[in-house]
Every structure is written in structure tokens, then in C-alpha cells.
Amino acid sequence: MQSRLPDLIITDFNMPEMDGAEFVSRCRRELSDPEVPIIVITAYDDRDFRYRALEAGATDFLLSPIDHREFRTRTNNLLTIGRQRRIIRQRASLLERELDEALRRQAEVLRRGEMKLRRLIDSVPALIVTSNGAGRCLMANSFRNLLASGPDVTSGTIEGVLGTAYWQRHAPLDRRVLETGQTLPAFEEEMTDSFGRTRSFMTTKTPLFSDGGRIDAVVTVSVDIGDPKESENRFLQHANYDPVCGLPNRLIALDRLSQAMVLARHGGTEIAVLHIDLGGLKNAYEAVGHALGDRILLGAAKRISDHAGAADTVARLSGAAFLVILPGQGGDGALDGRIASIIDDLGHPFILDGTEFHVATSLGVSLFPKDGSSPEELVQQAQVAMQRAKTEGRGPRFFAPEMSGNTYVRTEMERLLSKALERDELHLLYQPIADIGTGRIDGMEALLRWKSHEFGPLLPEFFLPVAEETGLIVPIGLWVLKTACQQAAAWRKSLGRTIGITINLSHRQFLDADFPRQVADALAAADLSPEALELEMTERLLMGNARQVHAVLGQLRGMGVRLAIDDFGTDYASIMCLTRFPFNRLKIDRAFISEATESVGGGALVAAMLDVAKGLNLQTVGEGVETPAQLEFLRNHGCQSFQGFLLGRPAEAGDCEMRLRSRPETIAPSMDGSEFSPSSD
What we know:
Helix content is 46%, strand content 22%. By secondary structure, it is α/β, with parallel strands linked by helices. The longest helix has 56 residues, at 68-123.
């Protein structure tokens, strides 16, 4: 039996040399399967024998003389149970091996993700150090090798790794972060590098929270800003000039306009202030990505600058807005010719990689001294005239007194925005979010639009800053929340399945004390499951009071509402936010997606982000997917969902429902891109 295990053992109790009890005990000890069923046969009156056999491990017993029908029934039952037990054991063994393999693969994925993240952190041109309250160095990136070594680099303490002077300077700051849970404002400090040179660093400190909200460590980031003089020059460059075009910014433009006004008063000449807005540039950015979009912006800046003389100033205000200051103007009509030349030059297409892009130029003009007595007033009047030109679409417009005080002035926009809800001017568009494996659309992101009777259709970037500053964003945000929940409930009823709804949160809305209750009320009013609602926030929104933010997010997560972090990777706080706050998924910003297939570095960065998300058990969404190559990259690297023009442009709720009925699955798991065209949606 030791060499060939039986399926069933039947033994008498009374036997020479070894009775049934001892035989059963040895079987249980010495056979490879200690649970082989054993039937012991005893006489009717041998009750004590039966007890001894059962105590020794017998499975069952039969009374002698044996009833053959009972014998067949019991043996068949035990054989069946034995077979089932062996099957279960085999399956359990198989499952155990599969579990071990899954755990091994998961550990390998985490290891690779940690290695990629470590390489990513080591590639950052800044000193990154993580320490605990006891002064232990939990992590220091490779930038530390460029600095002078401490007395004992193997001690594992901050003092040992970075030196006594560093530790004495940073210890009280670390204690403050650990005690308050607040991020310290950036401060400048000096450190000596391994060549003995003194280098300047801009340093910040941020708390690192555990899942329970406890502060585990402090993350210190020190960015090398060179020597003090270089630092000052770099600061002045960033403070005074646009980083994309290299043109003076608004601050410098106003200063130069002020100087020109002094000279104009003495010389009796005029100054023309041109406010130029390039319509359609945002669409170009969305169509070709930021890298190529910046080339259009640079091209436009050059065309404008080509028409400026040595005494003129061309500045970039923001977005697609430029300011041109033309001093020394007279009444000879030359100004009209210069303006016409600028508009004509900007009217020619911009050619990128063989594709033509057009921008619509809106130009407004104010004149000194006729239209204002201060630089700010002249720029504002030129902007008002530009808005009139954009609305009427008939060439440049010179400021006129009747334009001031009307709908183009900010105060009027505030007044109209405060009435937008009651005038039913706000509406939502919805952009689909699809499962990257099956192509099934399982969510929609709600996007706010304002169709003003006075201004016409407006994108959020034009009116949301006004709403945020005035506090109007709170009632508007509540309307968006209720409307989107009602729409999601309507889709569930008409389609027979749940379509998740994603809503963007503003800073003011999130910090409103009643916000969690408003969310609960909106869900209840729509009869919508909390799991169908996803609240999306940016990293910057999370950088306030960490405890308050954590408490509000905890309340929302406790309801069952899903939480997402938007534009992941665009701020330094990215990695810490993933561990500090209870998110369900993160959305990788379109800027990273556009670079994923354009360069090895861009692809490695997105892959590292996805690996980090997997290790933290977070779902992922790729934003701004515009090409099949980007989609395939995300699929190959384990991203779960995607959105962007490749899938569909924002659309009205009715159009979205028609699409969900006719094409619930937009892509196939393996695709060649032939069915994708951004213009088709």
C-alpha cells in the first residue's frame, strides 16, 4: 500500500499480530495520503471495537454478518467521495500554483515598475530625498552623487548621507512638516558639489501620508538653479518673457507703454496699441498636439514681429493673445497700412509637416492720448475693440467710447454670467470614454458650455476664470452635478445599462462645506448609483489643507463615489497624490500621450506612469488620444480606458445616445485604424 496507494481499504478488527485499531493508525501515519477511506468490520456486539477503530481514524464501519446491499452502497459512496476529494486536491494544488505564479508576476510587475520609477526619479535634474521623523534617509536619488559626500554615506541617516550642516538646517523644517502636515513654501539654499563649487537650490518640503492619513515621512525636492547671479538672471527671464515665444510678457509691455507715453506727451505724437487674438489656435493644438501647436504660435509671433520696428514692442499676453505697441504714430494713414499688413500676413496658412493650418485674426486698436491716460486702460480698450472685431468679424476695430461699459467689459460678463442659469444659457456636452480592450463606451465626461445671447458660444477658458473669482462657480458647479446625474440616469433607463458620468470639480466647489451633502442629494434625486458618478480633480486642487482635502475625499469615497485625478503628471505632486488620497483612477494628460509615440523618452515616461498605477491598484485613462498608434501604445502597456478625438468629439446628449445605441463598441481589440477619423464624430 505504501508503493501503490489504494482507493479504499476494508479490514476486519480481529486479526492476528495487529488488530484493526493499530492497522488504521499505521495507515494514517505511513501512507502518502492519510485520508484514504477505511471501513472496519466488527461483530454486532463489539461496540468497544467500533469506538477504538473510529478513534484511530476509521472512516466507517460495518457490522458482521455483512448486508451486501449496505456494503455496496457504503463502498460506492466512499469511493465517490474519495474521487471528488482527489479532484478537489488537484484543483487546489493547481490553483495554488496559479496563485503563486500570479503573485510572482505581480511582484515582477511591481519590481519593474519600481525600477522604472526609480530610473525616472534618478533622471530628474534635482535632489529628491525622503526622510522620517527620526532623521533616517528612506530614499535619495542619484543626484546626491553630484554633491559633496557626508561623513558616513552608509549610516542611513540624513546627516550621514548629506552632511551635518545639511541636517542641522533641515531637521527643524522636517519637524514642522511632520507636525503641521503642510507643504513648506519654496526657499533658496546653497550646497557644495563634489568639485567644491557652491551651487544654489530652490527647495520645497511636502508631507508623505499613509493610507490611514498618518504622516509617514517628508519629501524634500531641491532644484539646482545654478550660482546666485545665474539664478537672478533666470528669474528675471522667466518673470519678464514668455517661455514659448521669447517675447516680452504683459508686465514688460505695460512698462514700455508707460515709457512711450512719456515721450509721446513731449513730442505730441500718438501711440497705437494693438490687441491681436488668433482664433482657431486652440483647435490646432488639439489637432496636432502641443509640440506642433507651439510651432504655429512661434510662427505667428514671428510674422507679427516682422512688422515691428526698433521702437515698437511685440508682447504675448496669454494663450493666443498678442499686444503690439506702435509709438510715434501720426495722422498720415500709415497705421492703417501696417495693420492691414499684419492681418494679411497672419491670414496665410501655417504649414506643418505638409498640412495647412489657418487662424482667424481679430484685431482691436486703442490710441493714446485719445482713448486712455494709463497703460492698463489703453490695453483694456484695445481688448474691448478686439472683442467687437471678433463678434462682428469685419476686419480691425478702433476703440470707440460707445464700446465701453457694454457686454465686452468684464463687469458686464460677470453680470451676464450670474443670469446664465436662469436664462437657460448653460448646457453640457459629453465626450465618450471607452474600455481600451473591448472598445465599449462605458463612460461620458460632462463638459460645460455657455451660449450667451450677447457673446455667443463661449468655451470654458473664457468664462470659468470669472466664475471662479466671483464665486459663481459654486451654483454653476451644482447645476452641472445635478444635470449630469439626471442625464446618466436617463441613459440607464433608455439603454438598459449604466453609463458612468465624469464631472470636473473646481477649487471653490470642492472646499464648500456642503459639497458632500450636495453630491448625496444629487444622486438621490436622480436615483443614480454612487458608483456611476466619478468626480475629477487636478493635482493643484489637492495642494491646500491636506487634512481637509483628505477628509472630504474620504466622505465621498465612503458614499461609493469614484474619484479620479486629472492631468496626471503635469505637477510635481503627482506621485505623492496617488498614495496620499483615496483615488480610484488617474487620467494621464494629453501632453504625455502625444509624446508617447513620438520619442523613446516620452514612451518610457507614460509606461512608467502606467506601471506605477498598476502597482497601486489604480485604473488608468489616457486623455487626448488622437491616433491609432497612441491607442495601440496604451493598450500594449496595460492602460484600461481612453478618450480623445480618435474616439469622438464632445456632443449633445441626444447624439451620444444615438451613438450608444448604434455603435456601443467603437473599436475592436485588434485594430488597424482604418475606421478611425476624428472628423467622423
